[in-house]
Amino acid sequence: MLFTNLFQYSFVLRGLEAGVIVALIAPLIGIFLVLRRYSLIADTLSHVSLAGLAIGSLIGINPVLTALGATLLASLGIERLRTTKKIYGESALAIFLSGSLALAVVLLSMAHGFSTNLLNYLFGSIVTVTNGDVITIAILAIIVIALLIAFYKELVYITFDEEAARVSGIPTRFINTLLILLSAMTVSLSIPIVGVLLISALIVFPVITALQFKKGLKTTIIYAEIISIISVLIGIVASFYLNLAAGGVIVLVMVIIFSMTLLFQKFLSSL
Amino acid sequence: MIHTETVLEARDIHFSYGENTVLKGVTLAVQKGDYLGIVGPNGAGKTTLLKIMLGLMAPSQGTIAWFGNDIHQFKDWPKIGYVPQKATNFDGHFPATVYEVALMGRYGRRGLFHLTTSDDKNQAQKALEHVGMWELKDRLISDLSGGQQQRVFIARALAIEPEIIFLDEPTVGIDQQAKNDFYALLRKLNHELGKTLVLISHDIEMVTREVDHIACVDRELVCYSTPEEFLKNTRFTGVHEGEVQVIVHGHQH
């Protein structure tokens, strides 16, 4: 009975489709970002995407596409600043984070304040997910997964030991750039579901939870996937019945799973 | 052992960080089958020289040739195995099993767009068997002792099926027994598998017992000789901050 009710609404179905796609992709990128101590890149790119969304809203183009363009450009800029080592890596992130937030605020004030639509982009909502969004997300997801499979071994080796990877002939600069471009795409495609402010949680939480189990890389990725998909499904269903913001519920579920895992591991090690 | 083919040739290598000269005119060749120890005090430029040889850093002056090809034209990197200094390169919390680490050695050889094959898995297994770590293949790398971890890193370098293996201070932080076992393993790689070895270490006592040739680097190439000649021409001046200080009397170029 419960689920027939849920699926009567086509927007719930769209939300679930988009949510599961995002849940699949986020930990695949997250594992490399977390292990390379790049977690903050996701946060930075999500703020950049807000500026992209504002541009899209202003000029009347699908905001997800302008957000994608903005994050792709910014990711290349961040990587360039990081590799030329003219400034500290974290400062490069700070420049892009606050700079793009400032741009977003200015653009939004030009558009005379926050529209409801933009609030949804900030916090995520399955109600606003359109058919077009689902298609855009699905296409981006296929590209991200295909590239991740194609360059999986190079990404793994660079993440574990960049120098040894370089000596063995792996084009490290290319792979690093690829990773940050894929991060930008993942951030953009996650916006409609979890919202700009919570994307980095989606990318980081399942991975750091899976890492608590102290398994090998493949097993860790599988655990992160399971945690991510369960959290997104629970979050979307709960947000529907309780009429809450989907992004917030999803991330709270992730926080609960993470805390339970920590307590469980502590309990195990005290035995 | 008679060495004929030149594997690596470094010619007149200079390197400086701003005003600070790290390397000054180092010329050094490694022959096929050689077991070369590069020794010298901390901060003498050993690791910098190694990184220049491996193409990780560019020298301010001088040339590197691999198997007769200039390093810029050289493409056959899977001929070279590299075991980096563990302390600076290894994240102790990285979630990888022993087997996953060994398999990484195959990743460079396989090339872009290729998935790992059963041949890669066989080579990774063979490499782990060579270093005596196959039984621990499912353990996390971070759960192993320092000596065991180094064996896994050797296996990773072996899995690539290299002709030459570079090792940067491989025995730092491991106990004496593990050190002895480790050097026995290197001897086996050199004698039985015919791998050319270049070993950077400040453990002069151990190195002189093991290698075919010794190169002393202290910004310049201070000496290059067999261990016997090296011992004849140098005297130990004691241990200073954990490091054996050596004074070289005669230059043996």
Describe this structure in words.
The complex is a heterodimer of chains A (about 270) and B (about 250). Chain A is mainly alpha-helical and about 270 residues long. Chain A has 13 helices and no strands. In chain A, α2 crosses α3 and α3 runs antiparallel to α11. Chain B is an alpha/beta fold and about 250 residues long. Chain B has a single domain (about 5-250), classed as 3-Layer(aba) Sandwich (Rossmann fold). Helices cover about 30% and strands about 30% of the residues of chain B. Chain B has eight helices and twelve strands. In chain B, strands 6-7-8-3-9-10 form a six-stranded mixed sheet, with helices on both faces. Chain B is globular, with a radius of gyration of 18 Å. Residues about 235-245 of chain B have low confidence and may be disordered. The chains are: A mainly alpha (about 270), B alpha/beta (about 250).
Summarize the structure.
Chain A is mostly helical and 271 residues long.
Descriptive tags:
heterodimer; A: 271 residues; mainly alpha; ABC transporter involved in vitamin B12 uptake, BtuC; B: 253 residues; alpha/beta; Rossmann fold; 4-stranded antiparallel β-sheet; 8 helices; globular
Here the CATH topology of chain A equals: ABC transporter involved in vitamin B12 uptake, BtuC
The residue fraction in helices of chain B comes out at 25-40%
Question: Based on DSSP secondary structure assignment, what is the total number of beta strands of chain B?
Answer: 12
Largest sheet of chain A: none
Could you state the order of secondary-structure elements of chain A as H and E? HHHHHHHHHHHHH
Which class best fits the helix and strand makeup of chain A?
mainly alpha
Strand order of the largest sheet of chain B: 6-7-8-3-9-10
What is the overall shape of chain B? globular
The CATH architecture of chain B is 3-Layer(aba) Sandwich
Distance between the termini of chain B: 20 Å
Show the largest interface. Answer: A-B, 27 and 37 residues
Report the oligomer.
Answer: heterodimer
- The number of helical elements of chain B comes to 8
Extract low-pLDDT stretches of chain A. none
> Beta-sheet strand percentage of chain B?
25-35%
- Please give the domain count of chain B: 1
Q: Mean of residue pLDDT of chain A?
A: 87
Query: What kind of sheet is the major sheet of chain B?
Result: 6 strands, mixed
Number of domain units of chain A: 1
